[in-house]
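Many introductory courses stop at the sequence. We go one step further.
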Amino acid sequence: MRRTVQYLLIAALGLLPGSALAQMKIGFINSDQLKEQLPEIKAAQQQLELLQQQRTQEGEARQAKLAQMEENYRKQEMLLSEARKAEMQAEYEAEVQRLQEFGQATQEELMKKNFDLHNPIFERINAAIKAIAEEERYDFVLDAGSAGGAVVFAADQYDLTDKLLQKLQESPPQAAPAGGGN
């Protein structure tokens, strides 16, 4: 998606007459530098890392419990009745299931915590970018620090989304050829 936006921006800039391009004001930010220097981001990342460490330790303890259950079973296997073997096997499988559920729940918890911690910060950053762009009359603000680069602000006058949607509605997609093509 970012690459598409970049290509569209470059294409749009290439279509502008030289005088319009000369009047256009473009700025950039470096999000990598923001991540390194903004205390709120550092604090959020530390909270997230602490939670991840806690969940990792808890997961390791659960894995150790499983290993202990397996070792106990192997030591006692010859002495156990078939009913007790089946019972221990069922307990082991239930514990494996709980460990898998814990892993999934942990991933979901970490993703939610990441969003909860970072979203207010990103909203504040975006509001500040927009304020600077509007105060200083930037047409575009780019992010030079992100992996693919991105437009983080664009003046509404350059938004071609409505025109693109209208053009796409004027010429509906053609039906795919029968047979699938593989």
